[in-house]
Q: What sequence folds into this?
């Protein structure tokens, strides 16, 4: 089976020699599981996060894409569990609650509870709430992620909102023009952008000004939590707002910058196929001064000038 001359996936470009090595590993390790093969490939290519952890999840997705395109053949998936898309089992924990009303100030201090990976109670609750009440539902995120349950000091037993922060869009014309980077700079520095890919205020929560307060708290809290998990501090937050459903008022009230409108393609669309998606409004929030200049420069996780605490 032939390989493409190069492949860009999740911010890294693989040369033909690397792709041929991947095909050789898949062939020689046919007795291993796909997960074990992806870990082996990550080790050989040193495809890691700044913390040193392997990007085996992204690697597995890349291997599956290469198989779909006919460039290699992976071993059959071992029957260790149910097949098909992951389904979220709903419980009474995510049932509709009594209405919560008021103004945002009455619910201070807000508490952002990090949802740890794995089969924890808070992780299950987060998945249930997103799957049940977010219009996009629950999907397994790709790449680096950070999830929050938002609670309030006065009613700490109740969840007010759910947040998901994840890897950024590969290309967005409005954002990329604002930064002014080259494709090479984008491929190198894209991890320093974090995407707000899910924001759900639960339907029974009717608290005026709550959404913008949550965004402000996230802007202050997320850099520390992201650095704890991944070993570096992001420079820019981004999000896409479906204007057919939402006005984006909470982002503007939290001083996010409106940069323009997308072309309607998906976040990871590299085939220039819109697939009927509606255009989205593009918003960004700089976490430090001179973000475009920083994102065009060589960056490392330990750069002393990488991040300046400018958030008020």
A:
């Amino acid at each position: 089976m032939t390989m493409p001359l190069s492949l860009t996936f999740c911010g890294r470009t693989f040369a033909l020699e690397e792709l041929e090595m991947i095909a050789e590993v898949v062939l020689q390790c046919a007795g291993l599981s796909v997960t074990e093969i992806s870990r082996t490939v990550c080790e050989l290519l040193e495809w890691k996060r700044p913390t040193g952890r392997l990007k085996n999840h992204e690697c597995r997705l890349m291997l599956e894409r290469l198989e779909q395109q006919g460039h290699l053949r992976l071993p059959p998936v071992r029957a260790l569990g149910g097949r098909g898309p992951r389904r979220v089992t709903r419980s009474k924990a995510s049932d509709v609650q009594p209405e919560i009303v008021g103004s945002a100030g009455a619910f201070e201090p807000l508490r952002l509870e990090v949802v740890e990976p794995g089969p924890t109670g808070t992780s299950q609750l987060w998945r249930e709430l997103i799957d049940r009440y977010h219009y996009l539902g629950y999907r397994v995120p790709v790449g680096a992620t950070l999830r929050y349950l938002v609670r309030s000091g006065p009613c700490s037993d109740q969840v007010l909102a759910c947040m998901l922060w994840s890897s950024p869009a590969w290309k967005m014309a409005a954002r990329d023009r604002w930064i002014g980077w080259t494709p090479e700079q984008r491929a190198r520095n894209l991890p320093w952008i974090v995407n707000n890919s899910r924001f759900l205020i639960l339907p029974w929560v009717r608290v005026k000004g709550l959404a913008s307060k949550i965004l402000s708290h996230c802007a202050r809290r997320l850099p520390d939590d992201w650095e704890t998990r991944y070993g570096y501090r992001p420079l820019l937050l981004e999000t896409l707002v479906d204007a057919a459903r939402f006005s984006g008022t909470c982002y503007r009230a939290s001083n996010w910058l409106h940069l323009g409108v997308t072309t309607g393609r998906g976040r990871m669309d590299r085939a220039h196929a819109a697939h009927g998606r509606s255009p989205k409004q593009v918003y960004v929030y700089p976490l430090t001064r001179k973000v475009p200049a920083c994102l065009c420069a060589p960056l490392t996780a330990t750069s002393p000038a990488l991040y300046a605490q400018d958030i008020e």
About this structure: The CA atoms of residues 150 and 301 lie 28 Å apart.
